[in-house]
């Protein structure tokens, strides 16, 4: 291991990275709180400011993947379709198989300049999480309780509010509803058999109602649907802890268009004009089920050949994620080191013990944040028999 790789694996480096993320994130959350006074005066200005503030937080996570980990990103796409990315509103369908799905989704957004304005359909519990959850609140993220009878009205209203959004945005949605595990897959396929639907090998059955409502509410606002399926080469199983340790991954993103094909470092994409997606809820549901059958076939082909069709392209990394992180590092590390030196010079046992206690708490906090992304500690949504009915 070289010296750089050794340093990346050291816990003290991880603590410093997390210190910068947590402190800068809380500062930005505090600033976002004050932007609320703009909402009744100039809603669009409020939105534009919060897009930039949100970028300051989410780009730090992307920096870890792009610059710290150095994960390879390869994109296969049609040149004409490639020109549209980042210049139109889109619904992005993501699969949910890996611990860093969310980070890959953000990386995709960053490569095409829509990271700050990207939207998601997220579970309500995440809205209470400091930094990212609070950031999402100011971005008008759509939160749901995963109980469709209670969610429908709220989700529709939140989606309709996005119809006059002033920035180009991508709405990221995991139609499977939860991360893939073997247990959840077995339950999902039992549901498929009961409903007479074709079984899937590499995906859970999509939960179609949320997608149908999203299409219904954002029609005439969103131009296309990008269907995306994440894969990593050589059976790599990427984790956030691996990224934090500086481990390099190799991701492939296939984008077909009915039509158009893209590979970024992880996913399979497909640009589909939104007018091709049916408006009727049942027809939209059938359309989505068919899409997932096609996704399964592409996944099968990838596992068999280890590649996708089309010409590979490697979109260049933008420097802004790194520059943003360096800004916050320079701003926050100096007072930290100055405080540490003063504490050591004081020679007070109580002071040093207090500092050690803070380090322990920070370590626990770092581990908790990482655990949120781990598959074996993820949501039990979809595991229980009484939840077999697909939304």
TrEMBL record:
Function: Converts 1-acyl-sn-glycerol-3-phosphate (lysophosphatidic acid or LPA) into 1,2-diacyl-sn-glycerol-3-phosphate (phosphatidic acid or PA) by incorporating an acyl moiety at the sn-2 position of the glycerol backbone. Exhibits high acyl-CoA specificity for polyunsaturated fatty acyl-CoA, especially docosahexaenoyl-CoA (22:6-CoA, DHA-CoA).
Organism from which the protein derives: Glareola pratincola
GO cellular component: endoplasmic reticulum membrane; mitochondrial outer membrane
Protein family (similarity comment): Belongs to the 1-acyl-sn-glycerol-3-phosphate acyltransferase family.
GO molecular function: 1-acylglycerol-3-phosphate O-acyltransferase activity
Pathway: Phospholipid metabolism; CDP-diacylglycerol biosynthesis; CDP-diacylglycerol from sn-glycerol 3-phosphate: step 2/3; Lipid metabolism
Pfam families: Acyltransf_C, Acyltransferase
Recorded topology in the membrane: Multi-pass membrane protein
InterPro entries registered for this protein in UniProt: Acyltransf_C, Plipid/glycerol_acylTrfase
Keyword Glycosyltransferase listed: no
PANTHER family listed in its UniProt record: 1-ACYL-SN-GLYCEROL-3-PHOSPHATE ACYLTRANSFERASE DELTA (PTHR10983:SF8), 1-ACYLGLYCEROL-3-PHOSPHATE ACYLTRANSFERASE-RELATED (PTHR10983)
Any single biological process term in GO: phospholipid biosynthetic process
Lineage: Eukaryota, Metazoa, Chordata, Craniata, Vertebrata
UniProt protein name: 1-acyl-sn-glycerol-3-phosphate acyltransferase delta
Reactions that this protein is recorded to catalyse: (4Z,7Z,10Z,13Z,16Z,19Z)-docosahexaenoyl-CoA + 1-hexadecanoyl-sn-glycero-3-phosphate = 1-hexadecanoyl-2-(4Z,7Z,10Z,13Z,16Z,19Z-docosahexaenoyl)-sn-glycero-3-phosphate + CoA; 1-octadecanoyl-sn-glycero-3-phosphate + (9Z,12Z)-octadecadienoyl-CoA = 1-octadecanoyl-2-(9Z,12Z-octadecadienoyl)-sn-glycero-3-phosphate + CoA; 1-octadecanoyl-sn-glycero-3-phosphate + (4Z,7Z,10Z,13Z,16Z,19Z)-docosahexaenoyl-CoA = 1-octadecanoyl-2-(4Z,7Z,10Z,13Z,16Z,19Z-docosahexaenoyl)-sn-glycero-3-phosphate + CoA; (4Z,7Z,10Z,13Z,16Z,19Z)-docosahexaenoyl-CoA + 1-(9Z-octadecenoyl)-sn-glycero-3-phosphate = 1-(9Z-octadecenoyl)-2-(4Z,7Z,10Z,13Z,16Z,19Z-docosahexaenoyl)-sn-glycero-3-phosphate + CoA
Residue ranges of every copy of the Phospholipid/glycerol acyltransferase domain listed in the record: 90-212
Keywords, comma-separated and alphabetical: Acyltransferase, Endoplasmic reticulum, Lipid biosynthesis, Lipid metabolism, Membrane, Phospholipid biosynthesis, Phospholipid metabolism, Transferase, Transmembrane, Transmembrane helix
Annotated SUPFAM superfamilies: Glycerol-3-phosphate (1)-acyltransferase (SSF69593)
Compartment(s) where it occurs, according to its Swiss-Prot or TrEMBL record: Endoplasmic reticulum membrane
